[in-house]
Specification:
There is one protein chain. The chain is of the alpha+beta class. The chain has one domain: Alpha-Beta Plaits. The chain has an eight-stranded antiparallel barrel with strand order 1-3-2-8-5-7-6-4.
């Protein structure tokens, strides 16, 4: 089985709720018929509208979809289903790891909210050092300084669609309580301003060790695991 991860991009300001319904309904049904399994829809819908994403690519990211196939070469029908929903899709074959496993109720919205970041390694460090810091030191820092209850790494192995942007090295999924969408204290698992500041600074120092923040994209989404 191989995991595929797609960025959905649209500059026409699509209705996030309508897009979610289409993805969870018609698109997912078509994908499942062609062999897609463990389909997960990440929708920038009204439930996360209060978040402040960091969007740089044009057209902007308006959602994401991941799923598994026995062979990524058979992705054509799934890509067609997704392409019918938005202006552009960018697909990637990824390697998944789950440092923090969270419960995903099948067919319903996962509680809380999810932050998905497109991340890039610093150009002045090796791939080996990037992985060592990210999978080692930073894992502990991220868990200890944030209210994260789910953490999924999707390391990019290769692009699947023509002209898919390759300025990123991975897509990181982090699940948070819904309060973290608008409260920095809730996001950084703090009850006081001092605790928030301490956690924030520790997290930023850790990120600076291995990440290039120039190409970063940060999207807030609702998660729907369809199985």
């Amino acid at each position: 089985m191989q995991k595929l991860f797609y960025l959905l991009r649209d500059g026409r300001n699509p209705d996030g709720d309508a897009l979610r319904r289409t993805l969870c309904g018609q698109a997912a049904a078509r994908m499942r018929e062609s062999g897609a399994r463990e389909i997960t829809i990440f929708a920038s819908d009204s439930d996360v509208a209060a978040g402040k994403p960091m969007l740089q690519v044009d057209p902007p990211i308006c959602g994401m979809v991941s799923f598994w196939l026995e062979d990524a070469a058979d992705r054509g029908p799934s890509e067609a289903a997704l392409s019918d929903c938005v202006e552009r899709i960018d697909g990637y074959l990824v390697v998944e790891s789950r440092p923090v496993v969270h419960a995903m109720p099948t067919g319903r919205r996962t509680p809380g909210m999810k932050q998905i970041s497109c991340i890039t390694k610093r150009p002045d460090i090796s791939r080996e050092e990037f992985i060592r810091i990210w999978h080692g030191d930073h894992r502990r820092v991220a868990i200890e300084t944030q209210s994260t209850f789910g953490y999924v790494r999707n390391e990019i192995f290769r692009p699947l669609t023509p002209d898919a942007p390759m300025q990123w090295d991975a897509f990181v999924e982090e699940s948070f309580p819904i309060e973290a969408l608008t409260s920095p204290l809730a996001f950084y698992d703090a009850t006081t301003e001092a605790a928030y500041q301490a956690n924030f600074e520790r997290m930023m120092e850790s990120c600076a060790r291995f990440l290039d923040h120039g190409p970063i994209e940060v999207v807030f989404v609702s998660e729907y695991h369809l199985g």
